[in-house]
């Protein structure tokens, strides 16, 4: 009888422990530099209802450096979770700089870790190249150049355009979006954060030098072209819709092209009058500057966020060419230039040429893919969200694609190997 009673008590204790264990899976959602406590509300609400988790959306002062933000997160986790703050089953999910922050928490807490596992989402693990472009003045120069090119046509025309032609568009919105948006300003306006986020910063190096056994997953986002206008659209849109500015930019380009074509037509019509023809030709050139800038703006932005690279392409082909002989009429005067060959012979020649093209790495519109992926993780710890930019990845409910962020989280909760740390059952 005693053996039976002990067995029953053991089984009850095991069941009780299992239930407590399931209830103690705390998930801490940490926003990025541009965000707030509300940044993760969409997915936090979904998974809090579906999964056996207790969610906590933490916030911190985004105007201080990463070490300071990490300490703020440690303090809020301690206050919110109390005795469970150091529970080994706790998970932290960090977006953008929030991913660096939770990794820094892992570094700073030593043996009293607050999280047993980390999930980073679109985080600049090896630095945010846009911070370097801000520090060296490249971003400001690009914005000034943009405003110069965009305004050249209207200035040459001596007219005022209907700047409300596309909703909230105005005279300088296209060029100023390179610098006057909340996302860029949040980096540019905070010297300590800017310095921490730059590629090669001491803070980034310290985080990456930390040897840890904490299970970590990286989720990277990859946006479709035009990556910059889509990201800026998500920044100004209340529901993070990534098409709002794209259509406005297309409208703007059509207007610049229409004024260019109009002036070319006027130049042709006034060809009898050299002065008038020159005036209209100049105006057409000025409008073309803005049109060309719009066409090239994605490459300009990709240069600032360091996703551009130059690749060589070598190709060979047969070509029928006039080949000159090597006859030199003045062999006794080697210092004189060789006279043009006196004749040529048409031959088929095998020609090899090397061309150079600019190629852009995948990015989320702000961060290249290569900085979103931590090196040396197990292969199954990398996840991709296609069709999402740096902001949209936090809420893809309005995406024309399926909600791939939600799908990736469900894969992490459900589809990993048996016994994996991140497996989290449904309620």
**Biggest β-sheet: strands ordered side by side in the sheet:** 2-1-3-4-5-8
The biggest beta sheet is recorded as: 6 strands, parallel
Shape: elongated
Q: N-to-C terminal Cα separation, in Å?
A: 36 Å
Mean pLDDT value:
83
SSE order: HEHEHEHEHHHHHHEHHHEEHEH
Q: What percentage of amino acids are in beta strands? A: 15-25%
Nutshell version of this structure?
Strand 1 (26-30), helix 2 (41-50) and strand 2 (54-58) form a beta-alpha-beta unit. The protein has 427 residues and is α/β, with parallel strands linked by helices. It has helices at residues 2-23, 41-50, 66-81, 97-108, 129-135, 138-157, 173-176, 182-188, 191-197, 202-209, 227-236, 244-269, 274-304, 369-372, 404-414, and strands at 26-30, 54-58, 91-95, 117-121, 216-222, 308-324, 344-360, 382-386.
Task: Write up this protein.
Helices cover 46% and strands 15% of the residues. With 427 residues, it is of the alpha/beta class. The strands form two sheets. A six-stranded parallel beta sheet has the order 2-1-3-4-5-8, sandwiched between helices. A two-stranded antiparallel sheet has the order 6-7. It has 15 helices and eight strands. It folds into three domains: 2-127 and 202-229 and 364-414, 3-Layer(aba) Sandwich (Rossmann fold), CATH 3.40.50.1820; 131-192 and 239-304; 308-360, no CATH class. The two termini are 36 Å apart. The protein has helices at 2-23, 41-50, 66-81, 97-108, 129-135, 138-157, 173-176, 182-188, 191-197, 202-209, 227-236, 244-269, 274-304, 369-372, 404-414, and strands at residues 26-30, 54-58, 91-95, 117-121, 216-222, 308-324, 344-360, 382-386.
